[in-house]
Each structure stands twice: as structure tokens, then as C-alpha cells.
Design brief:
With 697 residues, the protein is α/β, with parallel strands linked by helices. It contains 17 helices and 16 strands. The structure holds CIS-heme D hydroxychlorin gamma-spirolactone 17R, 18S (HDE).
């Protein structure tokens, strides 16, 4: 291995492949084909049986083969992330749409068509590493650019605002949402007293909470959600002129979310649905894409919109500042080893490059400390986590940092101090004009101010923007928020906490508060109108956004019976027609059989985006069988319908739909396999037929 970061840079450059490939990791890959087992120090050995004194005798302390095998095993885990423990990552590349040097000196944005490798890790926040994917939660969106001027990480989320305004509050937030400490229940859920007690006492949480209670909390998949940088950052150009910016990562697949009962059931049936969807899409060559956009604002705009751009609980509505698309990224390569790449990826908001700068957002400022600190902890105290293959920059690293556990570099410069003369002064200090260095925006100022532990008065309106969000949701998604709040609050024990939450909701909307109150058996509240307004914005819902641009990789269950060859051959025909459209059909029958991919004992509506029934299947719905739970085939259809999925049937397959009227939207009865496939594909673009979901009167 031609070790060292510069060696890696050369390999990546010389490979001649798109930067989206992960060839920069090639030098670290270990493949075990046709080789003998060795110890960690390279001695070929037999590690199948321990060394014993006689056939039935005790294992000997001398057995270094046993000892090294076990001591390695005993240390396989590193601490999981204290938050965002559950996640999945993939490689890809970013491509700049243009030369953006008028606004930023960042080299990866310096030329139209310029490509930069990226690694993205998606996550949920509250659950532990083994928790199910479909927890209602904010979702992490941590994006690393391996630029030719060093690594740049945007450690964002799928919701554009955050719960709190000061990093000092983060441990409190996390303690409140994590499982209650006595019994460690519930896992990956906020439906418990401590979470809502904190939320109701910290009204800055309300805005993010409403987003999480809407479809944004339960996306269909990582591919179908957007990302946001959340904080306001700075772009700085070569002349030192700076702009305030907000990042948007807009997915090109279309935004799609599940409904809550569906998400809960899916967690039981397939706890890995999000990571599986991402993996399968990339493995099949259906590479997901996001457009990178920025809202660009002047330094003077910081309090112009009626809120403070340094307050991370606020977003900038697009009516105020449009989003300028600056590039796109594509995820086109799965990891080769989950632990080595995804688990050991260590993102840092403080990983920045020339042309980018921070702002004084107190949450961002606090994060700049916490991530490095947590990585030191996760890497068992060693700062050399930056040298782990997935974390290395693709450019040479030169500084006077030395040694430490797991040091991989062989530093030959013995003058590891600055200033020196004996090494000609190198490594030199780089800055705005020398060595293409990082520099702080010259416009940045600290006001002449006293030292305070106080919240800025410009941060104290916690209700206007949640109301803007609420007003802007279609009624189906408002209902979703109400239902989610009813679920969460009916699962907590304390009436006092429920009342505190309703009082906060009531400052956002009297209607919201009272629709939740009614389900909790609590009295209706009079309006608390100080922050009420009728403004709306666009682009904040997950429902009602029009047809999805892409349905590639969506899953369709085709119900058939092994008792009828016609039913099976028609299922096959439907399957072929759907496959031709880039969908992933699975034929379901009583037993596995040629062309049958799932059984009624294993299949469930939540495993599919749409469900259809082949002809000649009547018996499946009318006769029971010991091969599957009572009523299961009919239940699959009923659930699919109730979860708002497109459903349909050919011929007498219709008999399975005991309670479904053919004239409802998203229900397709036809006499031809091809026609059904066409209709289902069309229906999948709508994804959820929300008119099936009951609304409050
Ligand atoms: Fe994080 N956050 N966070 N966070 N965060 C972590 O770092 C923290 C915040 C986000 O896929 C931790 O490596 C503080 C906002 C993502 O590896 C930790 C504050 C946003 C990830 C940490 C915040 C995020 C993390 C845990 C101030 C969106 C996963 C393990 C209140 C803009 C990254 C780790 C990955 C992870 C601290 C708030 C996003 C402890 C102190 C706001 C996507 O360092």
C-alpha cells in the first residue's frame, strides 16, 4: 500500500473513473479468497480448535491463536453514537452546475461540471443502533464532500429547523427523548412523559415537533426525503465578500411518506426497510439524486425577515428568498463494509474548506466542539480517527500534530514545530492570500457586548413559524399531525404534561389544541391569539405535492394462488409488466413455488407500496388454511387500502375486496394484466390516496 493521504489522492485521480466510485478505499480492502487463515500478525494458523492438554483436557494459556481471536472479538464494538446511532450510508459524487466563485471560494463549486466524491449517512436520532428504521423522528442527513481542498461536512437533517437554540440544552433534549432511564422504555420513540415534559417546557421545540409529527417524521425511505443544513452558514469569495446562506438538498425522487399505523407495523415486519431500500436501489443501478440549493442572503439580512437568521428554530420561507440550485449529488455506490465505512464515518460541522464560514448561531457554535469530542470518545481517545480510510481527506495532510494511538503516518519531518528554520519554515501557515488557505469572513464582527447567559430577544418568538407550518399543510397532513399528537399524548401518563402541551399548541392554533384535547378527554380551550396569523408558505408538506417524478424500485405485491395455474401465469404476466416499468414486483401465494417470491404467512401490506390480485384467486379469500394466519390474505388487501396504497385486481381477484368500492380513487379493477400494471404504475405516482383517511368533522 502506498500509504498516506497523498497516495490515496493519487489513486483516486489516476483511476479514471467517476469520483462517485469508492476506489479511494481500494488500498484498504481485504479480500479472503483462496488464502490461509493468519493471526493479526500474519502467521498462518488453524483457528478452528483450541490448543488443549489432551483431547478432553483444559485449554492452554499458551494458545496465542485462541487468545488473539477472542481478544479481537471482545473489542469488536466501539461506542455507538450517543444520538443518530441508527443509520445507513452510501458513496456518490457531487457535480457543480456552474462556477460559483462570485459567491464562494470553495473549489468544489468553482467550475461547471466539476465532480467531487461524497459520502452520505442517513439516520434517525433517538433510537439505538439496532432500533427499527421507521421510528417517528427527525432524520439525519450527514453529507461529506471529499474536496480537493480538504473534507467539507454538512451535518444536516431532513427537517429545516431544530428543537433548541443553544447547544447547552442538547443533553437535556436528548435525555428527555431517550428511553426513560429506570426501565429503558420506550425505544426510539417520543411517546413518553419525559419527552413531552421537556417539549412543553421548552417552546423552541414546537416548530421541529410539528414537522416531526407530520409526514416528515416517517418518510417512505431515505431516497424520498429532503435534507437541510439547518443553520445559517456563510459563503465567502476570494475577495473576502460574504453572504449568509441556507442549504437545501431537494430529492429528485419526490417526497413521500408513510402513515403511522403502517410505519408501526412495518417496524415489526422489516426493521431495516430504509437501509434496505437505499441498498437495493443503488445495487440495482437506480441511483438516487438530490439537487443542492442555497438561499443566498446579505449580511444585513440577518434580522430582516422578522426573525433572526442565527436562530436555528426558524426557516426562511421561499417567498422571502428563493432557492438557487448550485449542483446535484448522486449516490451510486454501496459501502463494502458497514462497520469500516458507515459506522466509522465521523462527521464534523467543523470540517470546512476555504470559501465556507460559520455564523454565530449558538447551536452551531456548540456543535463545533461536540462532534470532535464525541469522535475522540468513539475512537477510544485517539485523535487519529481522521486517518481511518472513510474519514481521510483525499489531499495530503501536513501539520505538526504527531503520534497518538493508531498513528498511520510515518512523519519524516523532525522539526515538528512552528516557527522553524531547519525545515525551511514548513509546513507554512496558509491564509486568504497564501497557500489557498481557509479564512474567516472579513465582515465578521463581535459586538462590544457584556458576557451573558441569556437568550437573545430576537430568538423568543416560538409560535409564529409553527403556525406558518400548520397553516401551510393540506388538511390531510394537518390530520396526520393531530393524529400523531393524539397518539403521543395518549401514551403518556401525566395529565399535567398533557395540559402543558395543549397550552403550547394553543399558542400556535386553537384548532390544533382542541382537536388534540378532544381525544385526550380534556376540556376545550379558548383561543390564545397573540401569535395567530393566516400566512402560508409552500413546499413544507409531504402530501399534496403532485405526482412523484420517479417510482423506480417501488414494491408491488401480486396476490395469487398455487392452486390455479392460470392465476400464477397471470401473476407472472403482471409481474413482467411491472418489472418493465422499473418496479419490484413479488408474487405472493400459499407456498413458495416457481416465480412465487413470498408466502401469505410472511407477506404483509406494509412490505409493498401497492398490492394487486390476480384472477382466479377467489378461494384464497374464502377458505382458510393452516399455511397462513387466519384471514391474512384478505387482511393484506384491507390494510393496503387503509394505508392509502394503490390497489387493484384482474377479473375475479376483485372478490378479495369485500369492503372496497370500485369507484374509489387508487382502486383499479380490470380484465387485463397489462392494463392493471399501467394503472398501478400511474397510481404509485400519487403514492397515497389520502381521501381514504378519515378527517375530523
Ligand atoms: Fe448532532 N450530534 N448535535 N445535530 N448530529 C451528533 O455526533 C450535537 C444537531 C446530526 O451520521 C453526535 O458523531 C449537538 C443539529 C447528524 O454520523 C454528537 C447539537 C443537527 C448526526 C452531536 C446537535 C444535527 C449528528 C452524535 C447541538 C442538524 C449524525 C454522534 C444542539 C443540523 C452524523 C456523532 C452521522 C450526530 C451533537 C444538534 C445533525 C453528539 C451538541 C442542529 C446528522 O456529537
Amino acid at each position: 500500500m502506498d500509504g498516506g493521504a497523498s497516495g490515496i489522492a493519487k489513486r483516486a485521480e489516476g483511476s479514471g473513473k467517476l469520483p462517485g466510485d469508492d476506489s479511494f478505499l481500494d488500498g484498504f480492502v481485504v479480500d479472503d479468497k483462496d488464502v490461509y487463515t493468519t493471526t493479526d500478525f500474519g502467521t498462518p494458523v488453524n483457528d478452528r480448535t483450541s490448543l488443549k492438554a489432551g483431547k478432553r483436557g483444559p485449554t492452554l494459556l499458551e494458545d496465542f491463536v485462541y487468545r488473539t481471536k477472542l481478544l479481537r472479538f471482545d473489542r469488536e464494538r466501539i461506542p455507538e453514537r450517543v444520538v443518530h446511532a441508527r443509520g445507513a450510508g452510501a458513496h456518490g459524487y457531487f457535480e457543480s452546475y456552474a462556477d460559483w466563485s462570485n459567491v464562494t471560494a470553495a473549489s468544489f463549486l468553482g467550475k461547471a461540471g466539476k465532480q467531487t466524491p461524497v459520502f452520505l449517512r442517513f439516520s434517525t436520532v433517538a433510537g439505538s443502533r439496532g432500533s427499527p428504521d421507521l421510528a417517528r423522528d427527525v432524520h439525519g442527513f450527514a453529507l461529506r464532500f471529499y474536496t480537493d481542498q480538504g473534507n467539507y461536512d454538512i451535518v444536516g437533517n431532513n427537517i429545516p429547523v431544530f428543537f433548541i437554540q443553544d447547544a447547552m440544552q442538547f443533553p437535556d433534549l436528548v435525555h428527555s427523548v431517550k428511553p426513560q432511564p429506570d426501565r429503558e422504555i420506550p425505544q426510539a420513540a417520543t411517546a413518553h412523559d419525559t419527552a413531552w415534559d421537556f417539549f412543553s417546557q421548552t417552546p423552541s421545540t414546537l416548530h421541529t415537533l410539528l414537522w416531526a409529527l407530520s409526514g416528515h417524521g416517517i418518510p417512505r425511505s431515505f431516497r424520498h426525503m429532503d435534507g437541510f443544513g439547518v443553520h445559517t452558514f456563510r459563503f465567502v469569495n476570494d475577495e473576502g465578500k460574504s453572504k449568509l446562506i441556507k442549504y437545501h438538498f431537494t430529492n429528485k425522487q419526490g417526497t413521500a411518506s408513510l402513515v403511522w399505523p403502517e410505519a408501526q407495523a412495518l417496524n415489526g415486519k422489516n426493521a431495516d426497510s430504509h437501509r434496505e431500500d437505499l441498498w437495493n436501489a443503488i445495487a440495482a443501478g437506480n441511483f438516487p439524486e438530490w439537487e443542492v440549493g442555497v438561499q443566498i442572503m446579505d449580511e444585513e439580512d440577518v434580522t430582516r425577515f422578522g426573525f433572526d437568521l442565527l436562530d436555528p428554530t426558524k426557516f426562511v420561507p421561499v417567498e422571502y428568498v428563493p432557492i438557487t440550485p448550485i449542483g446535484k449529488f448522486v449516490l451510486n455506490r454501496n459501502v463494502r463494509n458497514y462497520f469500516a465505512e458507515t459506522e466509522q464515518s465521523m462527521f464534523c460541522p467543523g470540517h470546512v474548506v476555504r470559501g465556507i464560514d460559520f455564523t454565530d448561531d449558538p447551536l452551531l457554535q456548540g456543535r463545533l466542539f461536540s462532534y470532535v469530542d464525541t469522535h475522540l470518545h468513539r475512537n477510544l481517545g485517539s485523535p487519529n480517527f481522521e486517518q481511518i480510510p472513510i474519514n481521510r481527506p483525499h489531499v495530503p495532510v501536513h501539520n505538526n500534530a504527531r503520534d497518538g494511538a493508531g498513528q498511520h503516518m510515518i512523519h519524516t519531518n523532525i522539526y515538528a514545530y512552528s516557527e522553524n528554520t531547519l525545515n525551511g519554515g514548513a509546513p507554512f501557515a496558509a491564509n486568504q492570500t497564501r497557500g489557498n488557505g481557509f479564512f474567516t469572513a472579513p465582515a465578521r464582527r463581535v459586538l462590544d457586548a457584556a458576557y451573558l447567559r441569556e437568550v437573545s430577544p430576537t430568538f423568543m418568538d416560538y409560535w409564529t413559524q409553527p403556525r406558518l407550518f400548520w397553516n401551510s399543510l393540506p388538511k390531510e397532513e394537518q390530520q396526520m399531525v393531530v393524529n400523531a399528537a393524539r397518539f403521543e399524548l395518549s401514551n403518556i401518563q401525566s395529565t399535567k404534561v398533557r395540559q402543558n402541551v395543549l397550552a403550547q399548541f394553543n399558542r400556535i392554533s386553537n384548532e390544533l389544541a382542541n382537536r388534540v384535547a378532544v381525544a385526550l378527554g380534556l376540556p376545550q380551550l379558548g383561543p390564545d391569539p397573540k401569535y395567530y396569523h393566516n400566512n402560508k408558505t409552500v413546499g413544507v408538506s409531504t402530501f399534496g405535492r403532485g405526482p412523484l417524478p420517479s417510482i423506480i424500485g417501488f414494491k408491488v405485491g401480486i396476490m395469487a394462488t398455487t392452486k390455479d395455474s392460470q392465476s400464477l401465469s397471470q401473476a407472472k404476466q403482471i409481474s413482467d409488466a411491472l418489472t418493465a416499468k422499473g418496479l419490484k414486483p413479488t408474487v405472493i401465494a400459499e407456498t413458495l413455488f416457481d416465480g412465487v417470491g413470498a408466502t401469505y404467512s410472511g407477506a404483509d401490506a406494509v412490505l409493498f407500496d401497492a398490492v394487486v390480485v390476480a384472477d382466479n384467486t377467489k378461494e384464497v379469500f374464502t377458505k382458510g388454511s393452516s399455511l397462513y394466519p387466519t384471514g391474512r390474505p384478505a387482511q393484506i388487501l384491507r390494510d393496503a387500502f387503509n394505508y392509502g396504497k394503490p390497489v387493484g385486481a384482474v377479473g375475479d381477484g376483485k372478490s378479495g375486496f369485500d369492503s372496497v368500492k370500485p369507484d374509489q380513487s387508487g382502486v383499479y379493477f380490470t380484465n387485463s394484466a397489462d392494463d392493471l400494471a399501467n394503472k398501478i404504475a400511474e397510481g404509485l405516482k400519487t403514492f397515497k390516496f389520502t381521501d381514504r383517511f378519515p378527517l375530523d368533522e
